[in-house]
Every structure is written in structure tokens, then in C-alpha cells.
Amino acid sequence: MANINDYIQQIVGAAAGKVNIPSDVKDQVLGGLSSSILGSLTQTASKAGGLDEIKNLLTGKADAASSSITALAGNLFNTNVLSKLNLGSLAPALSALIPGIMSKLSGFIKDQDGDGDVDINDILLSLKGNSGAGSLLGAATSILGGLFGGKK
């Protein structure tokens, strides 16, 4: 099965390459973007109707720019990452990356090469999971905690 987390990290890396991120915070920004997007997916998966919303996003049936999943990812990124890094005028440029990243993610299923590696049900189950450390939500929480655990 294709790993959605790896795919998110690839998209984030490509998108963030277009912004001049200071080297001392680059890992925190990239990790924060990935974790915020993953967090928005896992939080959406846990709500009523959330799995259908994610399925529509991942198959390109929903407009990523106007998706509540995209809005949630932006809120998580602003709250959990940007507010702690004090990047000033760079913050809006970084926030503006999220809709583009989510648009790329919206093709995750339909852009695959059709060899059967991607099973939407496996992805949805991994997102729904439980909130323990082994789940994607647990992983996203752990990453964000690791990024900012030593910062005040």
C-alpha cells in the first residue's frame, strides 16, 4: 500500500522549496506542515461523515481549496507551528502553501499508476485508527511535540 504520510512529506518538501525558510527553523516548518495536514485528516476521520469527506478529497471529487480539511490544516499549522516560531512576514507565505499542498494531495488516489498499490479503504482505516502512539494521529501528535517540546 502506498503510504499517505510519505506522500504528504514529499508534497510538503516540494512546496516549501519555493519559500526561503531560515535554516534554523526549516525542519520545524516542514515537520509542522506535514503534521498539520496529517492531523487535519485524522481529526476529520474521527468525526461523523469524516471518512466520506476524506475519500472525496483523496479521489479528487472535492475541491481541496474549499475543503474543511484544508481549513483545519491551516488552523493547526497557524496555532501549533507559526505562532511558536515568530517568523513575521514569512508566516503568511507559509500558510499560503497549505491549499496548494492539499490540492496535490487531492490527487493521491486518482494519480496513482493503477497497479493496485493504493487501497482507499486501507488509507481510511489507517487515518481512523485509534489515537494511540501507533496511529497516524499519534504519530502527528508525537512529531509536533518533538518539534516544540524544548521551546517556550
Radius of gyration from the alpha-carbon trace, in angstroms: 15 Å
The fraction of residues assigned to DSSP E strands is under 5%
General shape: elongated
Calculate the mean pLDDT score and round it. 79
Succession of helices and strands: HHHHHHHH
Count of distinct structural domains: 1
The percentage helix is 55-70%
**Amino-to-carboxy terminus distance:** 39 Å
Task: Let me know the largest β-sheet.
Answer: none
> How many β-strands, per DSSP?
0
Alpha-beta content class: mainly alpha
Low-confidence stretches: 113-117, 130-135
Q: Helical segment tally?
A: 8
Structure explained in plain terms:
Helix content is 64%, strand content 0%. The protein has 152 residues and is mostly helical. The chain has one domain. α1 (4-16) crosses α2 and α2 crosses α3. The protein starts with a helix and ends with a helix.
What topology does this entry show?
Elements: H1 4-16, H2 26-45, H3 50-58, H4 68-85, H5 90-95, H6 97-105, H7 120-128, H8 136-148
For this entry, give a set of tags:
0% strand, 152 residues, mainly alpha, elongated
Brief account:
The protein is mainly alpha-helical and 152 residues long. Helices cover 64% and strands 0% of the residues.
